[in-house]
Amino acid sequence: MLVSSCVQSNESLATPSPAISTLPAISVTPALSFTPLPTVSYTPIPTPAMIATLSIEDARVELLKMLADNGDCQLPCLWGIIPGKSSFQEAQAILAPLSGLSDSVYLNPPGPGSLSPRYTEGDLEIYTRIGFLTNPDNGITNRVGFIAEAHRPIKDGGYENVFDSKFFGDKVSAYILPRVLSEQGIPSSVMIATAGGPLTRGGTGGFAILLLYPDQGILINYTTQMYLIGNKVRGCPVNAHVEMELYPIGSSDSFFEMLRQTNWAVKFNYYKPLEEVTSLSIEEFYQTFRESTDKCIETPTNLWATPEP
What we know:
The protein is an alpha+beta fold and 309 residues long. The chain has one domain (10-303). The protein is built from 8 helices and 12 strands. Strands 1, 2, 3, 4, 5, 6, 7, 8, 9, 10, 11 and 12 form a 12-stranded antiparallel beta sheet that branches. The longest helix is centred in the first third of the chain and has 14 residues, at 56-69.
């Protein structure tokens, strides 16, 4: 088992497998049922129509600011929404102004809430999705989900994933791997998911790196293109797509129970501990990737199932 010190750019790597991962997509649909919040005052609950929506240009500027500085807060806070502290109305007030960039808006209390703002420049699109759930007893946000991906439109009206975009990495700088490691420290767990041969179906790049911080209430997953190099599978996390599940700080005792109420109950089955499938320890992983680098991770193909055609 080897770790690559690959310093070449992703563009110079061997031709990527046309294969795409079969990891299920994240869903922010709650596994719990919710009942309406009791009325606590006669003050009308604000709705998106009552919250000023930014112009498209101003919303684009605001979205890029959020992706660059995370709304000037630190995970598990996302864009100013703090799991365990922010109310539905506070989350609604943060997201509703960006409604003009989203083709789906669900921000009517008591929840769940979600928004999918997009930023397009040239032939590339940064697609984001943020969703949150609130406790039905007190209306306080108790879970936040987030995705950021780079897409390129294709002729049939769909899109293809782009995993080597410096443009994307620069724009979502608040969530790149070195930034998260430098802010959060050494993860309690690092896990890998990939395949031992060409992938022929699915929708992602085929190489995923999962970081778990139970004490901080953070799960963060990076997906990048898999490359078959001889008898190794290689993945380079620079400019990788980002997926997160965020919970209140100090919820380590219930962290995995909360994750089992999401799609991660299934997705964990695809992952294996970093130490078992590479030559890296978690400490070595942290030291290697906490600074900006184009180094890659390699894992033997024989440790992974080869997908059926």
